[in-house]
Amino acid sequence: MADAQTLRQLKIKTGVVKRLFKEEQIYRDEVVAAAAQVDKLKAAGADGADIRNAERVQKDSEQMIPRTRKQLEEGLVALQDLVSALQADADVSATQEYQDAAGIVQQVEAAWKGEGQ
After folding, report:
1. Within a domain: residue 1?
2. What is the pLDDT of residues 62-112, one digit of tens each?
3. DSSP output for the chain
4. What number is the average pLDDT over the span 11-29?
5. 3, part of any domain
6. Is residue 83 part of a domain?
7. What is the CATH number of the domain that holds 20?
8. Carries keyword Nucleus (predicted)?
9. Domain extent for 73
């Protein structure tokens, strides 16, 4: 039987990586949407304050991407280390927690490979 503490750690670390991965994608989407909003406001000849506010929103989202990426990289390394350490343990590697952890590691690595990381 797999150790409950080990499975709990797998579940926690998997959740952290999933959350940060999703958060990074949300920030990237926000940057695209904010840039479109800035362009729209400029094209419409909007008030300067409105344009500056939209640019500030865009800048804030842009600044969050590297922060989130750094946290995601740290979380991913911790999860990869745990998954690698537990790979040989047949009791643990057969659990749903282990399968979820290995799956999110592959998902993040595939996404990064796709963006040229």
Report:
1. no
2. 999 999 999 999 999 999 999 999 888 888 888 999 999 999 999 999 998
3. ---HHHHHHHHHHHHHHHHHHHHHHHHHHHHHHHHHHHHHHHHHT--HHHHHHHHHHHHHHHHHHHHHHHHHHHHHHHHHHHHHHHTT-HHHHTSHHHHHHHHHHHHHHHHHHHTT-
4. 96
5. no
6. yes
7. 1.20.58.90
8. no
9. 9-114
Q: What is the mean pLDDT of residues 10-24?
A: 96
Distances (CA, A) of 86 to 3, 99, 103: 11, 11, 14
Q: For residue range 35-49, what is the model confidence (pLDDT) as tens digits?
A: 999 999 999 888 889
> How sure is the predictor about 29, in pLDDT bands with cuts at 50, 70 and 90?
very high
When divided into structural domains, the chain yields a total of 1
Q: Which two tokens stand for residue 50?
A: 């409105």
| Tokens describing residue 56 | 């500030």
Give me the helix-helix angle, 4-44 and 48-86, nearest 10°.
160
Residue identified by tokens 């959350």 is 19
